[in-house]
Design brief:
alpha/beta; eight-stranded parallel β-barrel; globular
C-alpha cells in the first residue's frame, strides 16, 4: 500500500514524496511580479523536504487579482523572477507547481493585514466581475456580470498564463475553481443567477471551467500534470455540493485533468463550516473512488502518522499542507524522521548537522 514518503508519479513527473505545499497568497508581489520574498519563502519549503511546492494563486489578468499585491502571469515580464524561483526549487529535489486564478467578485481588496477593505477605483482598484451582479457579502462591491465576449477573453487569459507558466519552468499546473473566486462563482447557484448558456443547469454552470481547461490544454504539454482545485461543497443546502463535484470531476477527467485538489467553502461569508482535523478528507476519498481520478487532501492535516494513514488507506493520493508549513517549513523532514522514512537527499547537506 502507498505511504506518505513513497515517490508519486503523475504523468512524466515523479514527486519524491506525497507532500505538497498548498498555494498560499503572500501578498508580496509588485505589479504582479514575484519578489525575493517568494524565492526565499518557496525555496525554504523546497529545502524543507516537500515533494511539490506550489506557487500561490496567480492572477491571469490584472483584474483577476485579489489585492494589488497579488502575483500575476499576465505580462511577459513576470516570467524572469519565476524562472529563478523554479530553478532553485528543482535544485532542492522538489517539483515546482503554480495555481492560476481569477479573483472575480472577491477582487480589488486591501491585503489582509491592512484590513481587507475594498480598494476603490481612485485608489488603484478596479471594476470587479462575476457570474452575476451579486456581491460576495456586506462591504464588497457589486460585480459586473461577464458577457460571453468577456468570458472568452478570460479563457484566453488562462491559456496565455499557462504558456507563461511553462516558460517559467513550472512542471505542475493547477486551475483555481474554488473558494468563491471567479470560476467557483459560475459553478455555484448561490452566486450564478444567469439565464444564458453559462447559468441555470449544471451543464451550463460548469461550461466556463471546461472551456478554460480545453484552452489551457492547447498550450500545456500533455506529459505534465494538470490539476483543478474545487470547493467540493458550499456547506449550504442550496449551493454546490459533493455530488456536483463528483460529476464535474468525471467531466474534468475526460478533458485530461489528472488530479482534483479537494477543498471546500468560501462562496459566501458567515456560512457555518464544521471545521475539525481532516474535515475535508472525505471529499478527496469520495471523488477518488467515484470519479476514478487522483485527489489531494487538504485542511488541518498536521500529524505525520495521520497523514501517512490517509495515504495508506487510499483516501487520497497526496496531502497538501498550508498553515502547518507556514509554522514549520521543515515539517516534511521531521515527519520522515518520525516515520523512519528519511531518504537520501531529503535533508540538504548544509543542514545535516541540524538533524
Amino acid at each position: 500500500m502507498p505511504q506518505l514518503f513513497d515517490p508519486y508519479s503523475i504523468k512524466s513527473i515523479t514527486l519524491r514524496n506525497r507532500i505538497g505545499v498548498s498555494p498560499m497568497c503572500q501578498y508580496s508581489s509588485e505589479n504582479g511580479h514575484a519578489t525575493d520574498w517568494h524565492l526565499v519563502h518557496l525555496g525554504t519549503r523546497a529545502s524543507g523536504g516537500a515533494g511539490l511546492v506550489m506557487m500561490e494563486a496567480t492572477a491571469v489578468t490584472p483584474e483577476g487579482r485579489i489585492t494589488p499585491k497579488d502575483n500575476g502571469l499576465y505580462l511577459d515580464t513576470h516570467v524572469s523572477k519565476l524562472k529563478q524561483i523554479t530553478t532553485f526549487i528543482k535544485t532542492q529535489g522538489s517539483t515546482p507547481g503554480i495555481q492560476l486564478a481569477h479573483a472575480g467578485r472577491k477582487g480589488s481588496r486591501e491585503v489582509p493585514w491592512v484590513g481587507d477593505s475594498p480598494v476603490e477605483l481612485n485608489q488603484g482598484g478596479w471594476q470587479i466581475v462575476g457570474a452575476s451582479a451579486v456581491p460576495f457579502g456586506d462591504g464588497y462591491q457589486t460585480p459586473h456580470p461577464l458577457n460571453p465576449k468577456e468570458i472568452t477573453e478570460i479563457v484566453v487569459a488562462f491559456k496565455n498564463a499557462a504558456k507563461r507558466a511553462l516558460e517559467s519552468g513550472f512542471e505542475f499546473l493547477e486551475i483555481h475553481a474554488a473558494h468563491g473566486y471567479l470560476l467557483h462563482s459560475f459553478l455555484s447557484p448561490i452566486s450564478n443567477h444567469r439565464t444564458d448558456n453559462y447559468g441555470g443547469s449544471f451543464a451550463n454552470r460548469i461550461r466556463f471551467l471546461l472551456e478554460v481547461i480545453e484552452s489551457v490544454k492547447t498550450v500545456w504539454p500533455s506529459h505534465l500534470p494538470l490539476a483543478v482545485r474545487l470547493s467540493c461543497t458550499d456547506w449550504v443546502e442550496s449551493g454546490w455540493n459533493l455530488n456536483d463535484s463528483i460529476f464535474l470531476s468525471i467531466e474534468l477527467k475526460k478533458l485530461g485533468v489528472d488530479l482534483i485538489d479537494c477543498s471546500s467553502g468560501a462562496i459566501a461569508p458567515n456560512i457555518k463550516i464544521p471545521v475539525k482535523k481532516h474535515f475535508q478528507v472525505p471529499f478527496a476519498e469520495e471523488i477518488k473512488k467515484k470519479a476514478d481520478i487522483a485527489t489531494a487532501a487538504v485542511g488541518l492535516i498536521t500529524e505525520p502518522k495521520a497523514a501517512n494513514n490517509l495515504i495508506y488507506k487510499e483516501q487520497a493520493d497526496m496531502v497538501l499542507l498550508a498553515r502547518e508549513l507556514l509554522r514549520n517549513p521543515y515539517w516534511p523532514i521531521q515527519a520522515a524522521q518520525y516515520l523512519n522514512r528519511v531518504n537520501p537527499g531529503l535533508i540538504p547537506s548544509q543542514y545535516l548537522r541540524g538533524f
